[in-house]
Amino acid sequence: SKKPVRVAVTGAAGQIGYALLFRIASGEMLGKDQPVILQLLEIPDEKAQKALKGVMMELEDCAFPLLAGMEAHGDPMTGFKDTDYALLVGARPRGPGMERADLLAANAQIFTAQGKALNAVASRDVKVLVVGNPANTNAYIAMKSAPDLKRENFTAMLRLDHNRAASQIAAKTGKPVASIRKLAVWGNHSPTMYADYRFATIDGASVKDMINDQVWNKDVFLPTVGKRGAAIIEARGLSSAASAANAAIDHMRDWALGTNGEWVTMGVPSNGEYGIPKDVMFGFPVTTEGGQYKIVEGLPIDEFSQACIDKTLAELTGEQDGVKHLL
Ligand code: NAX
């Protein structure tokens, strides 16, 4: 049987954590033959650590055959020791009266500390997924704080946007969601993201031709996907948790186990593709194989798409410029 791998999850006592840990421990992320050791990280606060203990009691009570060990941590320097996969879910939410700059600064502090800790103690091949918002910029900060690790091993979660887009297209076309191929989401995990179905196919047929409605694309589809997070909060009184956890599982599973040529969306540091400046943590269509992702290159970008990409890029570079002095 396989040797256990170490999976660190921050914000482990939060609502996404509660929807995520049980699925990782049951083998849905890394495979039904891959034992895992969970390294669970929460803030040192007594209440958070106590809540984390409660989640661990429930994990024990599931008697998962693949759960080879479990640890609770309050410090990333111990929590990330030898970790192979790190899911950075915990972040500082925007409090009442908090300015955007304050939010960026508070998160910059968290993600510089976590990046430095990964740099110091994690496996040299650690795969990092940042979920906590602002996800792209937090991933950028962690990457910049970990100069000894490979920059391509830091990623941000755009998969929820990708899955939301797929589900809207399935509803519009009346086709099964699993039949959609070659969907892409560009840019920031924020309402500015650009979900792009120009290349998408269903059973070999063009989705763009099937829908054939640029007004729907612009006035219904993009706003619906972009504002979906807010619509969930409005309906549920809480932000997306199960769907976010599901997207995190999808992202890590596809990165680790491969997509067999299918496209998925990941937020990854640019190498200059599509004119996105180097290191900007940007949503791109990728394929994955053997634990590596590859950005899908050479796609034609029309005028409308370029304007959408420019807008989300401007937002992201604004965020990154806002934290540069803190790195
Ligand atoms: P919760 O507030 O339920 O849980 C967050 C947990 O993180 C808390 O238990 C808190 O104590 C912990 N935490 C905070 N700072 C920490 C640190 N420095 N180290 C370790 N733990 C820390 O939030 P939840 O609903 O679980 O959401 C978590 C994050 O995901 C938020 O930043 C949220 O905005 C973000 N999201 C990102 C999404 C994406 O697609 N990228 C979608 C869903 C979600 O909104």
UniProtKB/TrEMBL annotation:
Keyword Oxidoreductase listed? The answer is yes
Q: Which UniProt keywords apply?
A: NAD, Oxidoreductase, Tricarboxylic acid cycle
Example of a GO MF term: L-malate dehydrogenase (NAD+) activity
Q: What is its EC number?
A: 1.1.1.37
Which InterPro entries did the record assign? L-lactate/malate_DH, Lactate/malate_DH_C, Lactate/malate_DH_N, Lactate_DH/Glyco_Ohase_4_C, Malate_DH_type2, NAD(P)-bd_dom_sf
Q: Where is the Lactate/malate dehydrogenase N-terminal domain?
A: 5-154
For whether the record's keyword set contains Oxidoreductase, the answer is yes
Reaction(s) the record says it catalyses: (S)-malate + NAD(+) = oxaloacetate + NADH + H(+)
Residue intervals of the Lactate/malate dehydrogenase C-terminal domain: 159-324
Superkingdom, natural source: Bacteria
> Into which EC class is this enzyme placed?
oxidoreductase
Task: Cite the Pfam families for this sequence.
Answer: Ldh_1_C (PF02866), Ldh_1_N (PF00056)
Gene3D superfamilies recorded for this chain? Lactate dehydrogenase/glycoside hydrolase, family 4, C-terminal, NAD(P)-binding Rossmann-like Domain
Signal peptide span: none
Question: What residues form the catalytic site here?
Answer: 189 (proton acceptor)
> In Gene Ontology terms, what is a biological process of this protein?
malate metabolic process
Q: For binding NAD(+), which residues are annotated in this chain's numbering? A: 11-17, 107, 114, 131-133
Which residues are involved in binding substrate?
A: 94, 100, 133, 164
What is the documented function of this protein?
A: Catalyzes the reversible oxidation of malate to oxaloacetate.
User: Which HAMAP family does the UniProt record give?
Assistant: Malate_dehydrog_2 (MF_01517)
Family, similarity comment:
Belongs to the LDH/MDH superfamily. MDH type 2 family.
Name under which the protein is recorded: Malate dehydrogenase
Query: What is the species of this protein?
Result: Rubrivivax albus
